[in-house]
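Consider this pair:
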Amino acid sequence: MRISEIFESIQGEGVLAGVPSLFLRASGCNLRCAWCDTPYASWAPEGEEWTVERLAGRAAASRLRHVVITGGEPMIFADLAPLTRTLEALGKHITIETAGTVDQDVACHLMSISPKLANSTPHGIEGGRWVEMHERARLRPDVVRALMARYDYQLKFVIREEADVDEVSALVAKLGAPPERVLLMPEGVEPERLRERSVWLAEICRRTGFRYSPRLQILLYGNRRGV
């Protein structure tokens, strides 16, 4: 797998927010989200190739039980399945962060699925040359349902404006997911923008029964790598 970074931090998002975790960031993605905060793993992938054995050795050396495999999109890598089974044998708790567009038979204790809403489409970026590819690939309800059926899961949505929640509600109804499995997370890489959006987003969660997800890594460390 091509890996852009490996670091220990706390999980900043989702139901395990606050849990100390080892992060393995795969470099490469089948989408091009307009607001992507890790372009070095998607728009312009960088990093080096790691074998399953080397990655497992790095995880084994960590005192942390929780391992988060993120990206980019880790599910596009063939070595993900053997890596997760090796990590499981080491007694690690495995979270996979995915857009839910690719299915693999992996070992996973929390499948963190983040289906991409229309707000992710990269209109006007690089002349719009990625729009058609992104729109074709960004939403695969059949894949999301398959992952939901096999794994403990959360559905995590990036919210830019209140109207995005209508799109979430329609998709969640189509997927048949209970509201307590749905997390709404404000988009942004500046603490002040996150705080502003969090005020009205928390109120929407109160009304709908969806859960609110922070972005603790931004609030604690700012928008930088390795945190």
